[in-house]
Amino acid sequence: MKRATWIRTLVVIGFVLLLEGLCRWGVIGRMTMIPPSEMADQLWKLLQSGRYNGHIFETLGNVAVAFVSAVVGGFVIGSILHSLPRARRAIDPFLATYYAIPFFAFYPLLVVIFGLNAAPIILIGFLFGVVAMIINTMNGLDRIPRVLIKTARVNGLGPLRTAWLIKLPSAAPQLFTGIKLAIAYSFIGVIAAEFIMSTSGLGYSIAYAFNNFDNRTMYALMLFIITLVTIVNAFFHVWERRIMARRGQ
Amino acid sequence: MSGSVVDMAAAQRGRGFAREPKPGGDMAEVHAELTGVKRVYPGADGGSVHALGPVDLKLARGEFYSVVGPSGCGKSTLLDVLAGLSAPTEGSILFEGREVAGRVPPGIGVVFQEDASFPWLTVQDNIAFGLRRAGTDAAEVDRRVSYAIGFMGLKDFRKAYPAQLSGGMRQRVCIARTLVMQPRLILLDEPFGALDAQTRLLMGDELLKLWRETGATVMLITHALDEAAMLSDRIGVMSARPGRLIADIRTEWPRERDSRIAAEESFGAITSRLWGLLRDETVKAAGMSGSSR
């Protein structure tokens, strides 16, 4: 293991132990937070009981749909904008200020349009993730060396084969950044939307536990989300590292 | 690369890069011909930039032709229109008797100055890229790629990625990728421009070996007068922009030659003559671009 990885691991372990100590010694009251060991214990019991399986699968399903839509939609829109420089120049300011928009303020409107079901939640997850993918797709396509496109022409490749065989792999590092951001934003969008107005899902379950002073369930579910997101991100991180290592980066 | 590379090339002649036994370099046969070729680009201010021409040029089959000229004179534009990468504004281009109409015809291979290796592919996959796209059968791909890897001295780097190679080795990968396609006309756009002087000399020797091996017609774009003088049968000198061919110099070197001809008396005479022709054009080009050099 590298020195930086050791230090990172020690920092995380140290933080968890500190939190455990502060909770056990009463510095942090039990109504505020329970010790991390109890969070883990409670999570294990919840998962064993299967009581929250429906909520977990619903949230993961919503995140998956929002994420895949954001990646595919972002790639398509990014590619189209890249090929239309005038349209891109017109839209660029909106993209630059996009994340300043408070999407959740529009949730009631989305409910009115789509009804009180999964659609508004997925749409918010999609809206959160899609622009990160659009911006990174355009960045990736901008950085393709012109000489590679010329090489494609010398090899007689048409536009589709050039896109598939040259542009896509060449832009892969930036596309990967877009994919990583899209998954993070999809999680944030879906869980936050569930938290605010949904009647099911992990976000709703955390809000329900919070409103009923059920700290053990609330922290157990929060630990579940943190663990899940960390595992998913670690997977993409390792994958990205392998790709970049081949390119000497 | 060692001298054994040449021996290997000789032993495998006809089984490596060469498409078929060559007719012995029929220098009279016109392989490619440009007639009245002009290229005008739209300018940034709504006007136009006359980059090239008119140019008239005939390349004989199997000859090694170089083009020298001041920076920005349209050398690369000339290569682009001949390759079919860019359509001429006026004039016609024929390759093997057929019009080149803004599309790269089969039989033309291009090596660029910039690193054109694909960073996501290994050396062998880079070299095999064009063959696989062309639907060549796997055994033939393997045979040609193995030969090219051996010829270019890349045996120990077969599975390496371009990021693990030096600039010179990456350029060899690009040359090998072009040569496995067995092009009959090889266009090189300052392929050694990014390399140090010693590596350039060695790569020049390799290029001469490849030229003899393949029997292909070669057009080399270069800004290095010594490189042009050492490698070429014939050298075209271009004027400042808009680039026109203002002189045509025959070197009269024997086909079997390498960088040691730089020691010949006539080598100095050729480079002096080239510089004599180019000096005024270079000053003109520098003035046109507003450079203080």
Automatic annotation (TrEMBL), chain A:
Residue spans crossing the bilayer: 63-84, 96-115, 121-141, 182-206, 218-239
GO biological process, alphabetically ordered: transmembrane transport
Compartments it resides in: Cell membrane
Pfam families reported for this sequence: BPD_transp_1 (PF00528)
GO cellular component, one term: plasma membrane
CDD domains associated with the record: TM_PBP2
Keyword NAD in record: no
InterPro entries for the chain: MetI-like (IPR000515), MetI-like_sf (IPR035906)
Keyword Coiled coil: no
Keywords for this protein: Cell membrane, Membrane, Transmembrane, Transmembrane helix, Transport
Residues covered by the ABC transmembrane type-1 domain: 56-236
Membrane topology: Multi-pass membrane protein
PROSITE patterns (alphabetical): ABC_TM1 (PS50928)
Similarity field: Belongs to the binding-protein-dependent transport system permease family.
UniProt name for this protein: ABC transporter permease subunit
Phylogenetic placement of the source organism: Bacteria, Pseudomonadati, Pseudomonadota, Betaproteobacteria, Rhodocyclales
